[in-house]
Amino acid sequence: MSSAVREHSVELATPSCDKGIGKVILTPDSPDLIAGVRLAPYSLWPDDRGYFLEVTRLGQGLAAAFPKETTQVSAALSYPGTIKAFHFHKLQTDCWVPVQGMFQVALVDLRKDSATFGLRNTLYIGALRPWQLLVPPGVAHGYKVIGPDSAMLVYLTDRFYDPKDEGRIPYNDPQIQYDWEMQHK
């Protein structure tokens, strides 16, 4: 996305960032979250047979405002080390529920009028941190599967998939400069 895109009063642009991973989010109420991004823990009920988790109840939780008529539920299985990034939506809101494995999630605020324009967030979510993630329109998002196992993401969208609403930015975009390498902290 080399030039700005105008859609419903939201102007989008690719920011120029220093190399790195941005702010690492450690709590759902972190003050460093990109504006409009929301997190909520979800419960797992393990027993000797496995575990149960409730992905969502329509009309409740992070996806409470999603219309029943157009909400779509999808799932993606990715192998260890896979990077799927970056994409964004002009209109669609996503609610991610990592149900298996671990994800390093990268977010970048592309909304020029946002107080957090250009801010990057990194979240480590999944089996070891069971959080749901709400990604508003104009926030680029992607992930890397971390750890030795495949990972599965179940996600809800507030509208049916429309390829005209989706934009893509390469995972190694020279302006965003997200560092997908091991951080060795």
Write the SSE topology.
Elements: E1 5-7, E2 10-12, E3 23-24, E4 38-41, E5 44-47, E6 50-53, E7 72-78, E8 83-89, E9 94-100, E10 102-109, E11 120-126, E12 131-135, E13 139-146, E14 151-157, E15 166-168
Parallel strand pairs: 3-11
Antiparallel strand pairs: 1-2, 4-12, 5-6, 7-14, 8-13, 8-15, 9-12, 9-14, 10-11, 10-13
Model description:
This protein has no helices and 15 strands. It is mainly β. Strands 3-11-10-13-8-15 form a 6-stranded mixed beta sheet, with no helix packed on it. The N and C termini lie far apart (about 30 Å).
Which descriptors would you attach to this protein?
15 strands, 0% helix, 6-stranded mixed beta sheet, single chain, mainly beta, disordered N terminus, 5-stranded antiparallel beta sheet, globular, 43% strand, 185 residues
Rg calc: 16 Å
Output the structural class: mainly beta
Number of helices: 0
Span of the ends, CA to CA: 32 Å
Largest sheet: 6 strands, mixed
Low-confidence stretches are 1-7
What is the beta-strand fraction?
35-45%
Oligomer: single chain
Report a brief summary of the structure.
The protein is 0% helix and 43% strand. With 185 residues, it is mainly beta. Strand 1 and strand 2 form a beta hairpin.
